[in-house]
Backbone:
């Protein structure tokens, strides 16, 4: 099963990083349901601005942790390199 690490841009301009197996479903949950993260519920709507695939949950979780430790500037540089 493939996992994805993603970054969302919230309505207040903040960035949220997470992992999922289904990007489309998870984005919908963040924007429209009670299953979204507590952080994003107060900052809707959110927009997907970055994603990368991982082999498994373990590598996705490690990558998520590494991205979360980056400064905002470094996260934005990562996003820019992708597009």
Residues:
């Amino acid at each position: 099963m493939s996992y994805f690490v993603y970054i969302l841009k919230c309505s207040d301009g903040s960035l949220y990083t997470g992992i999922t197996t289904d990007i489309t479903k998870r984005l919908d949950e963040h924007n429209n349901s009670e299953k979204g993260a507590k952080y994003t519920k107060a900052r809707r709507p959110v927009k997907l601005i970055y994603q990368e695939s991982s082999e498994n949950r373990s590598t996705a979780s490690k990558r998520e942790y590494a991205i979360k430790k980056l400064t905002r500037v470094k996260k934005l540089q990562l996003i820019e390199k992708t597009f």
About this structure: The mean pLDDT is 95. The longest strand covers residues 47-54. The chain has four helices and three strands.
